[in-house]
Amino acid sequence: MPRREERVRLAALLNIVFTILELVGGFWTNSLAILSDALHDFGDSIALIGSWLFERGARRSPDASRTFGYQRLSLFSSLFAASILIGGSIFIMFQAIPRLFNPELVNAFGMVGIAIIGIIFNGAGFFLLKKGESLNEKVLSWHLLEDLLGWAAILLGGIFIYFWKIYILDPLLTIGLTLFILYNVTTNLKEAINILMQGVPKHINLDSVTKDLTSIKGVLGIHDIHIWSLEGETDIFTAHVILDDEILEKQPEETRKTIKEILQNHHIEHSTIEIESKYHCSGMICEGRDRTTRK
Ligand SMILES: [Zn+2]
Ligand SMILES: [Zn+2]
Ligand SMILES: [Zn+2]
């Protein structure tokens, strides 16, 4: 097993164990802040399992029944995590808001203890993944750093409650942490939905791709353009390109190469291009052929 996959799997395992500890600790201390962090970590566990699948899928090559390979598996875990996190957040909010008006006693000493363990666990995960070289691991390690800050907030809250009995801090922290969870969920969900809808990836500007391609010498027009992403990293481009007669006859290969180069400048590695003359379209229907063709 490659080390990278091993690291992500270990981080996932640590997270799952810790989520269970937090659940127990949350009920024991009666601290909603710790419970909301348990929810957050549960979401993280699913995300980590998802990226573990992703690391595996990245190695598992396409086969006769899955010609795109298995990378999109990670999308399922994103959607699954999102539905659990949204449901859990709503549940916790319903618990936290009444406590604002009627704060309950919490075991501050226990809160501080769990926060310290949390800092150790998350810190370990952070340093484990920081060594990773893949983008996936980098993103995860930054995320764990955010989690460390969450634990620091709970630690401070616990200390304040312990010494000054400010019990309202617990629901306040809970609401803050839960809003943060919801913010992250929406961001991830938007991205996953964009991939499922085969939307143009955020980092690609369709207009400037089209503009660059139509400025190639001999290109009369371009239509039936599709830009989408397989799983968020591999971007795919297909289009019909109309060449003028002279270029079509004398240097179709050079033009094709130029097109590929331009696409690569736009971070598109995988492209399929249909070369057409101005007389006939190669598709059943050539969407927008007239609109984008230079006269
Ligand atoms: Zn997290
Ligand atoms: Zn291909
Ligand atoms: Zn066409």
Automatic annotation (TrEMBL):
Belongs to the cation diffusion facilitator (CDF) transporter (TC 2.A.4) family. SLC30A subfamily. GO terms for cellular component: plasma membrane. InterPro entries: Cation_efflux, Cation_efflux_CTD, Cation_efflux_CTD_sf, Cation_efflux_TM, Cation_efflux_TMD_sf, CDF/SLC30A. Residues 201-277 form the Cation efflux protein cytoplasmic domain. NCBIfam families: CDF. This is Cobalt transporter. GO terms for molecular function: zinc ion transmembrane transporter activity. PANTHER family: CATION EFFLUX PROTEIN/ ZINC TRANSPORTER, RE54080P-RELATED. The keyword Cytoplasm does not apply. Residues 9-197 form the Cation efflux protein transmembrane domain. The chain crosses the membrane at residues 12-28, 34-54, 75-97, 109-128, 148-166, 172-189. It is found in: Membrane.
